[in-house]
Amino acid sequence: MPLIEFTEKGLYCRQGDFYIDPWKPVDKAVITHAHSDHAKWGHKYYLCHTFTKPLLQARLGDNNYQSIEWRETITMNGVQVTLYPAGHIIGSSQVKLEYNGEVWVFSGDYKTENDGISGAFEPVKCNVFITESTFGLPIYQWQPQESIFQKIRAWISKNKEEQKNSVLIAYSLGKAQRLLQAVAPFNETVYLHGAVYNMHQAILSTGIQLPPVMRVNTESNKNDYKASIIIAPPGADGSSWMRRFLPYETGICSGWMQVRGNVRRRNADAGFVLSDHADWDGLLSAVKATGAERVYVTHGFQSAFSRYLNENGIWSAEVKTEYGDEEEEKIIEETNTGSAT
Fold it and tell me: Where are the domain boundaries for CATH 3.60.15.10 in the chain?
């Protein structure tokens, strides 16, 4: 019997009688991170990392939460469950299951470059590895984070010289916090959309230190912003909320910006290839580092990535899940919705 089964509710461990990131309500759920495609409302019990708990509380309200640290093991019906850093966002974790000498690992979402705030991705030796493949094509190759930060800072400096505001479009949980690191050298207060600000406050409650920010006041007008830096979620772009920042330029931060046409399609002034997911090389290095005999590939370009693994001597199969509708998968189309969330 496999240690993890792929069911209509999600990834199920029958031996332990719990699910990992289930997309339908269950009794017991182990949660890899707080993005809404992996953390759903309605479970009776949630197990997550310590940093993830306040984020789940902010998004899902009060529930029966239990939190543990990375590399801390608890036993659920004889199955040993351990969380390891995934490097995706703050608190994001891989889930290691061990039972009768067999080890399975579910990666959740992850990136292999250490972004300085999310915890460095840590490969875990296992028999079976279940990996995401959001950017599982060779075209997706990321530059080092600091190189992207330098491009963002140069763009902001140009905007300041032209007396324009700089509006960075980025997901409210994950990328927005990385951008605060990018703009820190300007040594000024950064303005946040309400959705980003709410996540900022939840993260501060974990004890993590972040640069000073100010929430955009709903009563504010364009006279309140002069060559300022603003961070907003994809849904805010193109909405009436943006008018108060005129004159401004927008910079979309997404792995999808690797494809140059996406910048034009979004009518963005700039596109920065900043992703919270592993690129092609990162995915390959992660898979090889686990030493897994079998690899299941979930959301993204799972067909192409799985086929490549098989052609290169690593047994692999595709798995259909309901993940991928949270950040990178939707950032392009959500930019047109006008939603403020």
Answer: 5-139+276-326
CATH of region 145-272, choose from 3.30.70.20, 3.30.160.270, 3.30.70.1130, 3.40.50.10890: 3.40.50.10890
**What pTM was computed for the model?**
0.92
- pLDDT(199) > 50: yes
For 5-139+276-326, CATH gives 3.60.15.10
Give the pairing type, strands 294-300 and 128-133: parallel
Domain limits, CATH 3.40.50.10890, in the chain: 145-272
* pLDDT, average across residues 274-303: 97
The pLDDT value recorded for residue 338 is 32
In the predicted model, is pLDDT for residue 141 greater than 70?
yes
DSSP string over 311-338 = HTT-EEEE---S---SSTTTHHHHTTT-
Residue range 12-34, pLDDT digits in tens: 999 999 999 999 999 999 999 99
* Mean pLDDT confidence for 221-240: 90
Asked if 328 and 335 touch (Cβ cutoff 8 Å), the reply is no
